[in-house]
TrEMBL record:
Keywords: ATP-binding, Cell cycle, Cell division, Kinase, Nucleotide-binding, Serine/threonine-protein kinase, Transferase. GO terms for molecular function: ATP binding; cyclin-dependent protein serine/threonine kinase activity. This is Cell division protein kinase 5. Residues 1-303 form the Protein kinase domain. It comes from the Eukaryota. The keyword Nucleus does not apply. The lineage of its organism: Eukaryota, Filasterea, Capsaspora. GO terms for cellular component: cytoplasm; nucleus. Gene3D superfamilies: Phosphorylase Kinase, domain 1, Transferase(Phosphotransferase) domain 1. It comes from Capsaspora owczarzaki (strain ATCC 30864). The keyword Protein biosynthesis does not apply. CDD domains: STKc_CDK_like. InterPro entries: CDK (IPR050108), Kinase-like_dom_sf (IPR011009), Prot_kinase_dom (IPR000719), Ser/Thr_kinase_AS (IPR008271). Belongs to the protein kinase superfamily. CMGC Ser/Thr protein kinase family. CDC2/CDKX subfamily.
């Protein structure tokens, strides 16, 4: 827990909670955090309020909230959810976000997995563009998953929930390995590496790509760290020093891991053409430095027939 920076305190006087009208529809409710749909009485604009209860203000604001606020104030992009304002009153910190109709998980559930090739390409391209913007500004999201990708009624996809995001520097820094929801966690992180960079977001994006292509079914739905690794090994093969130099030195590497042979990705993700399989394979490389960058992925031939309006969005 850390205290609200002075520059944030001065910002919280811009709006008051009384300036918004709740419609009593709670989107998300956890022990300390609730999210509501509401609208501004001043502008009539529909927004989302993320309300964080501060049980003891002397302890300050959760560091995840401070991190999310600080980063979103810097990241202004069509594919990143917009933070309108921050309110601090009544033992609550309230973040005012632009409203999006649903997240990618709900979208996939509602369309019963029948997302359509061009829609999938649009969402993947927008995801990569948002990631590229973050990486250009030296930010790792670290928690990419369908639930953290918001979609509005215009079909615009936006990265959200930057509570685990981090600024990164050169050389690559050491971080905690407890990042990213298990199903979307890169194998280097699963094996205990604390030295990582932009490639962990690319792995997550690859898993999301496959999930869209598989009708909403996760590619690697592990129930534990070991099960997650085994599911990856059964598709990509068990890594060794030849294909991933240094893997046997990672903290969680076990010499007695089951030896699995790689299977063709096209036999697992069957609804994507050869260009899509090639892009997916480049996103799911074992060697972190060998994973394709977000910028390069956007230039992949898989997107050659992408709608001009999606590519032009900026």
């Amino acid at each position: 827990m850390i205290h609200i920076p002075q520059r944030l305190k001065s910002r919280t006087n811009c709006l008051r909670l009384a300036d918004f009208t709740l419609n009593h529809h709670s989107l998300i409710s956890h022990r300390h955090i609730s999210t509501y749909i509401t609208y501004s009485q001043e502008t009539g604009e529909i927004v989302a309020l993320k309300s964080i209860r501060l049980d003891n203000e002397d302890e300050g604001v959760p560091c995840t909230a401070i991190r999310e606020i600080s980063l979103l104030k810097e990241l202004k992009h069509p594919n990143i959810v917009r933070l309108h304002d921050v309110l601090h009153a009544d033992k609550r910190l309230t973040l005012v976000f632009e409203y999006c109709d649903q997240d990618l998980k709900k979208y996939l559930d509602e369309c019963a997995g029948d997302i359509g090739v061009m829609t999938m390409k649009s969402f993947l391209f927008q995801l990569l563009r948002g990631i590229a913007f973050c990486h250009e500004h030296r930010i790792l999201h670290r928690d990419l998953k369908p639930q953290n990708l918001l979609i509005n009624k215009r079909g615009e996809l936006k990265l959200a929930d930057f509570g685990l995001a981090r600024a990164f520097g050169i050389p690559v820094r050491a971080y905690s390995h407890e990042v990213v929801t298990l199903w979307y966690r890169a194998p280097d992180v699963l094996l205990g590496s604390r030295r990582y960079s932009t490639s962990i977001d690319i792995w997550s994006a690859g898993c999301i790509f496959a999930e869209m292509a598989m009708g909403g079914r996760p590619l690697f739905p592990g129930s534990s760290t070991l099960d997650q690794l085994m599911r990856i090994f059964k598709v990509l093969g068990t890594p060794n020093e030849e294909i991933w130099p240094g893997v046997s030195s990672l903290p969680e590497w076990k010499p007695d891991f089951s030896v699995c042979r790689r299977v063709p990705l096209s036999s697992v993700v069957t609804t994507v053409d050869s260009y899509g399989i090639d892009l997916l394979a480049r996103m799911l490389m074992y060697l972190p430095d060998a994973r394709i960058s977000a910028d390069d992925a956007m230039c992949h031939p898989y997107f050659s027939d992408l709608q001009a309006n999606v590519r032009a969005m900026a």
